[in-house]
Amino acid sequence: MADPKGFLKVGRETPKRRPVEERIRDWKEVYLPMPDEKLREQASRCMDCGVPFCHFGCPLGNIIPDWNDLTYRGRWKEALETLHATNNFPDFTGRLCPAPCEEACVLGINQPAVTIKVIEQAIVEHGFAEGWVAPEPPAVRTGKKVAVIGSGPAGLAAAQQLNRAGHTVTVFERDDRIGGLLRYGIPDFKMEKWVLDRRLKQMEEEGVIFKPGVNAGVDLSGEELLSGYDAICLTGGSTVPRDLPIPGRELRGIHFAMEYLTQQNRINAGEFVPEDQIITARGKTVVILGGGDTGADCLGTAHRQGAREVYQFEILPRPPDTRTPDMPWPYWPMIFRMSSAHEEGGFRDFGVSTKCFSGHGGQVAKLHAVRVEFGSAGSNGRRPMAEIEGSEFEVDAQLVLLALGFLHPQKSGLLEQLGVELDQRGNVKTDKSYMTSAPGVFAAGDMHRGQSLVVWAISEGREAARCIDQYLMGSTQLPTNRANMVG
Q1: Where does the pLDDT of residue 83 fall: very low under 50, low under 70, confident under 90, or very high at 90 and above?
Q2: DSSP 8-state assignment for residue 17
Q3: Which of 226, 299, 431, 432 is deepest in the core (most CB within 10 A)?
Q4: Distance CA 288, CA 163 (A)
Q5: CB–CB of 214/228 below 8 Å?
Q6: What predicted TM-score, i.e. pTM, was given to this entire model?
């Protein structure tokens, strides 16, 4: 245990954010690093609980009390080894994960939880700074070939684990660069792309083969993949966005969030985008529909592009500030949260349903909405929604961004060619070994479980890799994070 009285002597402290007026002028990360002494103090708050519920909260099963103790003692290299034992990419999760581990922290019952996520990121950054994060190529190759389709966090985790088991792994990505959602979906102010690139360099030096610009199912058929590889791992993500089919949807200036975010990431990377195709918030009144993380990413992007004003509407009621009886510890609570983007400005409202859009000359000009309220949950668990009479209103809108989530993976093309069965939600159905209805074809991440968190994607990628290794070799020495996680 780090310090038996640490949680009594030290309060929770998180990294400072760069001043708003400074950070909205660039695309650099928002948070400043914490001094080592502060990090060691924060690690001392960990109580090394007899039953560490942070493990329960973390889909990766991270050994959190152990690396908290090692951080407190300044044993950074051992802390890194413990962290990497369960997580291939703590440099990603330390920046992007919403930290369900912290919501499950025992200290969080009656005090602010341990700053687990901050310590995680600090450990891996120490590792890179000291040169401890090095390629780990396999000593022996098995002669087996595995194709990984999609290079997001699930695909990268599966590829690294399978490569370290000795298989020859090729990652196919239809975009022009490797990284999937990490590359083109996450704004730079949340994770700069050099963080991704240094991991890809490590994986290349370990022997992973990357093939960007190859659209599996188009440039490479399902039949070719089945005949050319001993196993296939589908990690293409949940890519079909939820639309809003209401009057006026066809007007110019209404875009899916991922169109908007991806384009800005490409521009930040130095890619040329024709002037008439640029989606910009500069000087405009922007409306974002959707109150989740993607909506907040759009909000931060609009601030940096120079929007005149930004509205963010969510159809659900405003969440409570603290846990309620139906959100008991240690489960993830659906409470009101403020991201760094919300701190930067904008008008945020809840219980708003969009009725239609109107415009001039084919260009959107206004959003028409009504306020809604929700009744008590019925036997099916759903709360009936009703419009509030007389609550109709409208706002100006020269740019509307739909951040309404994703429905399921793209079904046409590769999934049809492989003949894999889908579940009721349209995701790829698997058994407990992550294998689909097609022998030798596995699926993991959002393509399998639906839209989820980066930490779940990495966890599923690792678990799928273990199952693929077992399938190919009859046994496996790859670690498991949690038994029977598929569901």
Answers
A1: very high
A2: B
A3: 299
A4: 41
A5: no
A6: 0.96
Q: Which residues contact 219 (CB under 8 A, 6 or more apart)?
A: none
Cα distances (angstroms) measured from residue 48 to each of 39, 63, 84, 99, 123: 17, 11, 19, 18, 18
Determine the Cα–Cα distance for residues 68 and 135; give it in Å rounded to an integer. Answer: 25
Q: What percentage of the chain exceeds 70 in pLDDT?
A: 98
Indicate the angle between helix axes 36-43 and 64-72, nearest 10 degrees.
Answer: 130
C-alpha span between 183 and 197 (Å, rounded)? 9
pLDDT at 485 (0 to 100):
45
CA distance linking residue 309 with residue 19, whole number of Å? 19
Buried b (16+ CB within 10 A) or exposed e, 126-163: bbeeeeebeeeeeeeebebbbbbbbbbbbbbbbbbbbb
Q: At CA 259, angle to CA 451 and CA 348, rounded to 5?
A: 75
Position of tokens 């990413």?
297
CA distances for 273 relative to 29, 182, 475, angstroms: 23, 20, 49
Closest CA to 444 of 148, 219, 194: 148
The overall average pLDDT reported for the chain is 96
- Residue 216 contacts residue 55 (beta carbons within 8 Å): no
In a domain, 327, yes or no: yes
CATH number at residue 18: 1.10.1060.10
Number of domains into which the chain is organized: 3
Specify the residue for token string 């993991």: 444
Q: Across the strands, what pairs with 148?
A: 171, 233
What confidence tens digit (pLDDT) does each residue in 387-414 have?
999 999 999 999 999 999 999 999 999 9
In a domain, 482, yes or no: no
